[in-house]
Each structure stands twice: as C-alpha cells, then as structure tokens.
Design brief:
2 copies of one chain form a homodimer. Helix content of chain A is about 55%, strand content about 10%. Chain A has about 190 residues and is an alpha/beta fold. The radius of gyration of chain A is 24 Å and the shape is elongated. The first copy, chain A, binds a DNA duplex (30 and 30 nucleotides) through helix 8.
Chain lengths: ~190, ~190
DNA sequence: TTCCGCCTCGGCCGAACGGACGATCCCTAG
DNA sequence: CTAGGGATCGTCCGTTCGGCCGAGGCGGAA
C-alpha cells in the first residue's frame, strides 16, 4: 500500500487523481472548492468511463451524506472513529472492487432495507404457502385463469384461495393484494 | 472476548443462546434441524422482546440469503473468506449494536440502493398528468367508480384514460398498471 | 384558421371478477 | 377415532372490467 498523493481541496483531488490514477481514493466530504460528493461523481459517478474506487472518510454520518455518497459512486463510507483496522480493510476492499461501510452506518442502511416488512398493519392470520403462490402471481398481473394454469389447478381453486386472501388481508380486490405484496416485500 | 458455547445444530443454538444469553451469536446458514435464518428469526427477529445480536457467517453469498438474513434481524453478514480481522470487527460492531457486512456483499447491497431508479423498460410515450392521477389511484386499489368520484369526472372518462394507459405502457390489466407504478416509483 | 393533442363524456357487449354456497380428499393433533 | 385445517373442485349470480365505437370542448402550434 503506497500513498501517491495528498491534496488540500476537491479541485486538486480531481486533477491529481486523473494524473496518477490511484487504485483507491480516500475523500473527505467537507472540502474547499469542490464537495467530496461532487469529486466522487466526477471520478466514479455513473457514466464515467474508467471509474476510480472512492472511499469516503468523514466525521459526518448524516443520512443525506451516506445516500448521496453511495449514489455518487462511492465504494466505501467510513467514519473517522472507525479505527485503523477498518480503514485498511476498506482500502483493500475498494481495491478489490468491493465496498466496506462503517458498522454504525451499516446498521441504519440495514434498517432501511429490512423495514419495508412491518410497515404493513400487521398480520394476525398469516397466509399459507399456497396462498402466497397466488399472491405472487396476482401481483404480477396474471388473471385468475393464468394463475390456475401456472399452478396446475382449476379456476375454482384459485378463486377459493383469493377469497381466503381477501379475508385475511382485509382487502377488497386484486389490486390491493398487489399493493400489499409490493409493500410487504413478497414481490420485488 | 469469550466463547461461551459452541453447538452443532440450529435447535441447540436456540436453547443455548436462550440459556446463556451471549452478547453476540455467530451463526452459519446451513445447519441441521434448524436453518440459520430461522434461528435468527427466533433470537433476533421482529417481535422478539430481548433480541440477541446475530452475525451470520457463511460461505453462501446468494442474494436470497443476504436479504433473508437481514430481514430476519441479523446485525451482520460475513463470508468465510473475510479473514479474521473482519470477523473480530464484526463481533465488536455487533456487540455495540452496529452491523458489519462483508465487502463483497456490501457492494451488491449498495448497487441495489443506488439504482432504485430506471429499472423500467423505458417509456417511448410518456403518460400525461391526468393519466398519472389515474395510475396512482388504480395502484392503490381503487375501482373505476371510485377513481371517477375522487377525480370529479365520469366513469367513462376514467375508462378512456385507462385505455390510453394500457396502450402506452403495453399492459393488459389494471394490476400490471399497479406493478408498473410500484416499480417505477410513481407510488411508494 | 386549421390542425392536433388532451380531457371530457356516452353506449354497447363479452369476458373477467368476486361472493356465497356446498363438496371431497388428505394430513395432523388431540 | 374424531375434529380441524388446508387444498382441491363445482355452480350460480350480480358486478366490474376492458374493448370498441363515436362525440364535443379547449388550448397551443403550424
């Protein structure tokens, strides 16, 4: 691991990075002249031909910064309290094309990923496996006839399952079933 | 850091974890009797009163496992090729209530986070504002009659708009409209 | 002014949907 | 053995959906 450059502001970061083309760039967010996120967009953003690996290292862990950085093309996000071990691991990961994010940031990321589950009113009466099969197909826009064909059952059976699903979910038509499926993550 | 127990299968994991209540549990996914994900759900899943911190350690990095684990309540996901450094950091993070995910898994997670945008096939012919109004209501499960009432137009008008939407999106029924609306972010 | 796109309505009709019954089979728990 | 739940099928019936016509008003662009 070799440090090939150290710069003082965002503009310098861009020019030096383009000249030296390092394997990994460590960037702060708060920098003079050019924001760290803008630098990231220029060096690694969507549409860049030879994107560099960028790891954001900052003390600000605001959600807006995190999502902004990751959308800008960053392959890592470290808080400065992470300690040297994680910093080294993050550089190694970035060089390998992977991404390492600070644990305290990751936990919030995961909450965003994991919670589209229980946004739904609850489910006193869970759906059976077969009913979930029907839900998944309905949510994709299949008609009852098509569902019957794909599940190798009769139209009557599909309608029976649909009746149970209506009662359990407390909905009135198939579109509400689809909406529930998308909200609860049954389909994606 | 002290190892208080090591067990051979999922059922044993649950009973020992409940008896000893360790700060952190390391779990494999492939285990006899009880799946690692099921164990996670029992020990740390949604609705558990005193959830334990669970870190999944596995060689299988299939996406279904990752999302399943995180939805089940895991606060970490490590691949067995991560090396001892990351394992230790993951345990520390879990004990602190944070979460550490393997870099090679994180990079895929970030890709899913960074692009919830243009997954839709395209749109040669964009919907008009009025048609979008209809789409939004349809996607929430309203009937044509209800849409007409909420938009202060007649049933015929709603059906006309629906016809245009069908043609523009290339779909065949209202549920596919709803699915498109969810995928494209028109509704959330 | 003459188009053209958008929004607004109406009628007709076949297909699909959803509700309300009842019925059989199988498996598991008590 | 019996009871219950899940999955499977069927019929009847009223409502809704979606397609296919046509028509008028209204605003901007040619």
């Amino acid at each position: 691991m070799e440090v090939v450059a150290a710069v003082a502001d965002g503009a310098e970061a861009v020019s030096e990075a383009r000249r030296l083309r390092p394997d990994v760039c460590l960037l702060d967010i708060r920098m003079p002249k050019l924001d760290g996120l803008e630098v990231t967009r220029v060096l690694a953003g969507p549409g860049v031909e030879n994107p560099l690996r960028v790891v954001i290292v900052t003390t600000f862990d605001l959600d807006e910064y995190v999502y902004g950085a990751l959308r800008s093309g960053a392959t890592g996000f470290l808080l400065k309290d992470s300690g040297p071990t994680l910093l080294i691991e993050a550089v190694r990961a970035a060089a390998a094309g992977d991404a390492l994010v600070s644990p305290s940031v990751t936990v919030r990321l995961l909450q965003h990923l994991a919670q589209p589950k229980r946004a739904v009113p609850a489910m006193n009466d869970p759906l059976t496996d077969r009913e979930l099969d029907v839900v998944r197909l309905i949510a994709r826009g299949r008609t009852n006839q098509e569902v019957a064909a794909e599940l190798f059952v009769s139209l009557s059976t599909v309608k029976t399952h649909l009746g149970s699903i209506f009662a359990k979910l407390g909905v009135r038509n198939r579109v509400e079933i689809a909406a529930w499926a998308w909200e609860s993550g049954v389909v994606s």
